[in-house]
């Protein structure tokens, strides 16, 4: 019986995000349809950042692991060679926050931005990936970024969030790129990423594909977002419909697009309603029981 009960339980979607500069930490909002999102705990913080010099918690990414735990990574600082990590059983009580020095072997690395986690069921490993600028590494696009930033996407893998593989380059699409988010789609992996090229400006979301989580990934698609600057994509697939939510940061509000084939996209920004001031976050699923506990706070 338990199994059939589970099958009819409708998913609860959870959006983790930050506000302002990320100094107050983790915010959560929930939705049952992916359109209307309601902030929890009066939109106050669930977890205050404690690691790294800047003690920020920007760009939080939470996934539910194969171990049943919620695993979170985040950007700790504008200029640091590591990321933040913590885990939780219920999104309320969190483990001690850790600073994971993923770019310690690159002494000139300027930053580690917007880390995310994707789980690979085949290899039973988690891949953590983020964007870093290493000056002089990709000289053809050195002038493309703001303030001489020229990012590419890097990764480590782990089974237990205690030991990590050596950092490697995940994707060089031939342009300055940040904010990758990767989801499994059948047998392949789909990466949404931001083209960060400044001159001439791109500042849009593109897609790449791979048969393996760690790559190699295909050439990036043409842009899927419109004539505005977009960053921090996160995705939700409901039935056959893909939805991509992103920060239209120059317009100071979120946007969203939808597609059934990942090629033809419809703007659904006017259908979504998100908490005021929401910045770069990710979507994951929780149970009704877990939501009830969060709503009591």
Task: Give a structural overview.
The longest helix is centred in the last third of the chain and has 8 residues, at about 290-295. About 45% of the residues are buried. The protein is globular, with a radius of gyration of 18 Å. The protein has about 300 residues and is mainly beta. It is about 5% helix and about 40% strand.
Query: Uncertain spans, ≥5 residues at pLDDT below 50?
Result: none
> How many DSSP-defined strands?
19
Order of helices and strands: HEEEEEEEEEEEEEEEEEEEH
Q: Kindly provide the radius of gyration, computed on alpha-carbon positions and rounded to a whole number of angstroms.
A: 18 Å
Mean pLDDT, all residues: 96
Number of helices: 2
- End-to-end Cα distance, whole Å, is 31 Å
Major sheet: 4 strands, antiparallel
How would you classify the helix and strand content by structural class?
A: mainly beta
Task: Using the alpha-carbon principal axes, give the shape.
Answer: globular
Strand content bin: 35-45%
Secondary structure: helix percent? under 10%
Q: What spatial order of strands do you see in the largest sheet?
A: 3-2-1-19
């Amino acid at each position: 019986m338990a199994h059939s009960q589970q099958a009819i339980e409708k998913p609860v979607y959870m959006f983790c995000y930050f506000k302002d500069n990320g100094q107050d930490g983790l915010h959560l909002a929930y939705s049952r349809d992916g359109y209307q999102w309601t902030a929890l705990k009066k939109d106050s913080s669930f977890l205050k950042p404690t690691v790294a010099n800047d003690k920020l918690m920007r760009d939080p990414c939470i996934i539910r692991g194969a171990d049943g735990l919620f695993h979170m990574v985040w950007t700790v600082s504008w200029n640091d060679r590591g990321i933040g990590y913590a885990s939780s059983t219920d999104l309320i009580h969190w483990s001690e926050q850790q600073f994971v020095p993923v770019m310690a072997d690159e002494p000139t690395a300027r930053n580690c931005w917007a880390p995310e986690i994707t789980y690979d069921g085949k290899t039973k490993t988690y891949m953590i990936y983020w964007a870093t600028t290493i000056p002089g590494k990709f000289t053809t696009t050195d002038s493309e970024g703001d303030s001489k930033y020229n990012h590419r996407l890097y990764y480590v893998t782990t089974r237990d969030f205690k030991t990590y593989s050596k950092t490697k380059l995940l994707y060089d699409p031939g342009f300055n790129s940040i904010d990758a988010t990767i989801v499994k789609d059948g047998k392949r992996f789909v990466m949404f990423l931001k083209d960060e090229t400044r001159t001439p400006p791109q500042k849009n979301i593109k897609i790449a594909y791979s048969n393996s989580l760690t790559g190699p990934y295909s050439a990036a698609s043409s842009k899927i977002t419109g004539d505005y600057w977009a960053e921090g994509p996160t995705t939700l697939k409901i039935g056959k419909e893909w939805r991509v939510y992103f920060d239209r940061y120059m317009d100071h509000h979120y946007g969203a697009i939808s597609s059934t084939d990942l090629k033809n996209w419809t703007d659904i920004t006017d259908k979504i309603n998100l908490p005021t001031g929401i910045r770069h976050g990710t979507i994951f699923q929780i149970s009704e029981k877990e939501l009830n506990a969060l709503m009591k706070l």
